Amino acid sequence: MNWSFVLSNAITLACIYGTLAIGISVTWSSLGLVNMAYGFIFALSGYGAWLASVNISTNPAIVMAAGILTGGAGGLIVCLIAFIPIHDKPSFPLRALIATLAISLVGNQALLWYFGPRAKSLPRLFGNWNADILGVIVTSDKLGASISAIVLLTAILLWMRSSRRGLEIRAMMMNPHAASIVGIGVRRTGFYVMALTGSLAGLAAVLLAQTYYVAPFSGITPMIKGLSIALVGGLGSVPGAIIGAAVLGVNEALTSTLLGGQYVLITQFLLIILVLLVRPRGIAGILDKAREA
Amino acid sequence: MMQTAADRKQRPVLDVRGLSAGWGPMRVIHDLDLRVFSGERIGLVGLNGHGKSTLFQAIAGLTGWQRGSIKLNGFEVGRTRSQGPGRYTHQIVRRGLALIPQGDEIFHGLTVEEHLDSGAFTKRAWADRAARKQKILKIFPPLDKLMKTAVGRLSGGERRMVAIGRGLMADADLFLVDEPSLGLAPKIGKSVVEALMAVDLGLSAMVIAEQNVALLQGRVDRIIGMHAGKLKGEASASSRSFGTERTS
After folding, report:
1. How many C-beta neighbours within 10 Å does residue A62 have?
2. Interface predicted TM-score (ipTM)
3. CA of A278, closest CA in chain B: separation in Å?
4. A162 touching B (Cβ < 8 Å)
5. Model confidence over B41-100: pLDDT tens digits?
6. How many CB atoms are closer than 10 A to CB B66?
7. Matching CATH number, B5-238, of 3.40.50.1820, 3.40.50.300, 2.40.440.10, 2.30.110.10
8. With contacts defined as CB-CB under 8 Å, which chain A residues touch B91?
9. Domain edges within chain B
10. Chain A: nearest CA to B201, how far in angstroms?
11. For chain A, which residues make up each domain, given as ranges?
12. Tens-digit pLDDT profile for residues A141-157
């Protein structure tokens, strides 16, 4: 069996799913919103990138930018419908869950109606070549996907660490009540968060479409995986989500090589149950040495 | 612009009229009137559960419901609300309110320095934050060594200092300090209150809610008693009528 192939697959999947998981995790902890429409945003930005590649240019930068921008716009739409009008009403998390689920169902049907059921494929953004890294042969799309995900995620995380808006978002993630006391506007920060996480979904959509394709319902499985990685990592923890993505990426690559692709979700959820049995707060519970409130 | 002390006395920073507030079916504040003038340091004393914290929360728009007029710097921030606690809080805060809540309300993963930064929300305070942080460190010297430490790892007294420091970072006209000595060892609680007394208020005003009258006595401009959701009795801090013989 080819271990280098498993490893490169695992890293690529971890990068893509980690991007999604960070988006879901940040949305949940800062806004209290489980974004069930994340899969719809994912599919929508896939179509955005496809439209750009057909109508504008197949230049990789333009296709990727189109995907990311469509994702950001999708995030803003979800924010306008499912966050702004109801965020201060009683039992908001439940309402938001239902509202985003509705957006997801309606949105996916709208995509099906407009674009038809046939899957579209994006142009190869990273060319068609192989790289030899320490004796491991890696195809260009995997290498490109991993590197662009890592670069963009690092940029976003650095922005969250150093900028004022990032400080506001992190403060909201830790204590929304205290955030309003220090003058952070919940709704305005909601816009930033949703645009940011939406564009993360857009990035993941473009990258994953290098291996798979763009279809009306192509966002469902990645969203489930992103959500479960966010759970394993501990909702609200970015480092936890990264480690969770690495663990589940290895699991997915190993399972599809050893057992077959159809067993991936089974082993994945078994692994998640195992982690949550030992650490109910997810991997973040091991990392976090700070006492809570 | 120079202002004399007499001018300052004329300008109410906070003017509360007919305020009622509470949570769900419970009414905690009953038709309360309160005026706080620029440059004043006021002690608000009263037993647990008589509405000190709720009064502060109502001013910040954090109660479950409220009605009545709250004027902050002459601007009406009191709204008749039946739901949505905290929805307008950030706007009220931007109008010049700094609330230092009971129980600290810290962000457990942020460092002390990031905390102090997060308190400087107005444009002016943000641009000026380095100098402001130095001021806070003068008030609370123990924080100097902890600037890069996550607040979740600090002790209770250190957390209180961070919470108060975060409030003082603001470019606010009215500071509401809720129970600064609560839950701290007497010696540390006393030093925290002493630090609050040492803050140079300038044109702003400060209201300190406290159960331990002895800690405030003789060091604030006025002491107001609070009982069952109403203000009861008022004394300048030097007057004998309010005197308690307890010493801390």
Report:
1. 14
2. 0.82
3. 23
4. no
5. 999 988 888 889 999 999 999 898 999 999 998 889 887 888 878 888 888 998 889 999
6. 24
7. 3.40.50.300
8. 185
9. 5-238
10. 19
11. 3-220
12. 888 888 989 999 999 88
